[in-house]
Design a protein that fits this description.
CATH topology: Rossmann fold
Distance between the termini: 12 Å
Strand order of the largest sheet: 2-3-4-1-5-7-6
Order of helices and strands: HEHEEEHEEHEHH
CATH architecture: 3-Layer(aba) Sandwich
Structural class: alpha/beta
Largest sheet: 7 strands, mixed
CATH superfamily: Peptidyl-tRNA hydrolase
Length: 186
Amino acid sequence: MDSELENTYNIYVCLGNIGKEYEKTRHNAGFIFGEQYIKHLHDKGFDSITKDEKTYISVTFKFQKIVFLFPKTLMNLSGRAIDDYLSYTNIEGYITVVHDDLDLPIGEYKIAIAKGPKTHNGLSSIEEVLQTKDFERIRLGIENRNGVGITGLDYVLYKFSEEEISLLHKTIISIIKTIEDTKKEG
């Protein structure tokens, strides 16, 4: 195996907003993904190292070569957290940004490179810092307005219902299974 690849981590940048008032909101779908995936790895017996830095929290599973990065900046400044993380660590990585997507109904997801929702300020910040749009994205559907006239800007800050959270968790389990199956094949 190429020694360069042996030192490459999968870095999951999980987008959301820090603070109790944002817990279980649609904009925090990325955080929810990261938290559930971390729990999954802990349940399988893998140990992690958590670092709480000024602009981010990182959870690293060294033997799995996986890092979960949770920006502590405002959503619109998520790129700054990635820049700080990459500048202050010696970890090389394949970046996957996990985020909410109003273009997809709740319960659906897409894994894509260079394609995302029409507008998402967190992604714009990341694209600016990385100077590319060519990174993997896990787009978690959060749309469930059913014709109710709420702007997207307001809607992303609405909390998920218990039924919606349950559906989101099932979706995340499906994504984790897809990721793990892909690793087995590769």
